[in-house]
Amino acid sequence: MAGALFEKAGFRIAGDQGLLVEYGDAIDLAVNHKVRAMAMVLGSDLPEGVMEVIPTYRSLLIVYDPIKTAPQQLKEILISLEQRLPEIQIPPPKTVEIPVCYGNEFGPDIEFVAKSHGLTVEDVVRLHCEPEYPIYMIGFTPGFPFLGGLPETLHTPRLETPRTLVPEGSVGIANNQTGMYPVASPGGWQLIGRTPLKLFAPERPNPFIYRVGDRIKFKAISPDEYARIKEQT
User: Which of 31, 43, 83, 180 is the most core-located residue (most Cβ within 10 A)?
Assistant: First the structure.
């Protein structure tokens, strides 16, 4: 069943140093919860030869040293660790409020999004600010959060031609997802606003202000508020 947990994890070879472990077949909170739990178990005591554990929407990528371990050994360890999941307490998610200045030069695509759905710009802002969005995974660039829960009314295709440079802090929509660009980079998402917060700062003890499993709550602010917050960060 699409979106349901697999009864048994699926294992696939990913190159000569990777093992992909799949726990479901769609973007789903229950599937993602299991991914996070397994990542936590593995991260607390990495098995011999495992160099990195990378969680995604519905799977884990285990990066390993082929001199020290092998896929079959890792598969046996992972099956054994999975049996410990009922004992694992995942920290409750925190909700991180993100101020966003919508439209104008900060969100050049917001009018396109509005017209595509027969909405006003004010409707887009209101609808985008209503949910608390779960962070399913972080990737693409440092700290880029892929968020679930975008209202169906706002589902909008990516740009036909991606921009060569998207400003830092931009907030965008791509199909059924919304997300933020912590660093300036190329990108093809429909840009609807921008946050003045520094989402990724390698000089901070914790470079990120959120993690996988947390919730994001957007709050609309004025250009003056944007400038004031930007000056303070």
Answer: 180
Gap between the Cα atoms of 45 and 80, Å rounded: 14
Q: Whole-prediction pTM value?
A: 0.83
Would you call 77 helix, strand, or coil by DSSP?
helix
Spatial strand order of the sheet with 18-24 comes to 5-13, 18-24, 59-64, 50-55
| Burial state string for 205-215 with b = 16 or more CB within 10 A and e = fewer than 16 | eeebbbbbbbb
218 and 130 both lie in a single domain: yes
What is the spatial distance between Cα 174 and Cα 154, in angstroms, rounded to a whole number?
Answer: 9
Question: Rounded to an integer, what distance in angstroms lies between the CA atom of residue 1 and that of residue 96?
Answer: 32
- Partner residues linked to 60 by β-bridges: 21, 55
Q: Each residue of 94-115: pLDDT tens digit?
A: 999 999 999 999 999 999 999 9
Of 87, 103, 136, the position where a domain reaches its end is: 87
Who wins on pLDDT, 84 or 199?
Answer: 199
What does the pLDDT average to over 27-42? 86
Reduced DSSP (H G I as helix, E B as strand, rest coil) percent helix, strand, coil of the chain, to 5: 25, 35, 40
CA Rg, the chain, in Å?
19
Domain carrying residue 131: 95-232
Together in a domain, 63 and 103: no
70 shares a domain with 31? yes
